Amino acid sequence: DTEVTQTPKHLVMGMTNKKSLKCEQHMGHRAMYWYKQKAKKPPELMFVYSYEKLSINESVPSRFSPECPNSSLLNLHLHALQPEDSALYLCASSPRAGDNQPQHFGDGTRLSIL
Amino acid sequence: EDQVTQSPEALRLQEGESSSLNCSYTVSGLRGLFWYRQDPGKGPEFLFTLYSAGEEKEKERLKATLTKKESFLHITAPKPEDSATYLCAVHGYSTLTFGKGTMLLVSP
To answer: Does the distance separating the beta carbons of B41 and A110 come in below 8 Å?
Structure first.
């Protein structure tokens, strides 16, 4: 079982909907990440939070809005998404951003945009 | 810019047929090389971290090695449950860079 928990596992939404993805970890990690993964492709980094502050935004469109309410939780707010945003969204955590420790991933949210 | 190239893209083995997966990399200041296993519809599962040339790590049928330019993931006597995509990633000065992965299929 993964130590990073993501909900929901599956999400289908229309292009005008607003929804949120949630991620939770209790390993005491202070860095959390959002990745996007398309079929048969590697994960692509979207955002990095370090000590609850956004430290990296990989030029992600504003229809994706991350939030880190505390050191254990990470949210990704979605609004006015496009069909090409359909993908597996992965959350990961590591002890600290930029160090040499491995990132631990959740099982992702499979997002489908109608 | 950090780069990771994995080969082959796909590999089909018979149960018990040992082989190796390759991960070639160029990175400014290697802080760590990571191997992950990913099953369909799941997130990447951490396998190994390698930090310096000459280092080796083992876990069951898997053994990872590292040189200054590449890493190998050796699979000894694989079983069907080893079927998965294996991802290699390097951590340079800033973020993690993933290779495209090797899709391994082990037939009984």
So the answer is: yes
Give per-residue pLDDT as tens, B43-101: 999 999 999 999 999 999 999 999 999 999 999 999 999 999 999 999 988 789 999 99
Chain A contact present for B94, CB below 8 A: yes
Mean pLDDT of A76-101: 94
CB contact under 8 A, A105 and B46: yes
- Nearest C-alpha in A relative to B84: A40
Strand runs labelled E in A1-114: 4-7, 10-13, 18-25, 31-37, 44-50, 53-57, 64-70, 73-79, 87-94, 104-105, 109-113
Minimal Cα–Cα distance from A59 to chain B, Å? 14
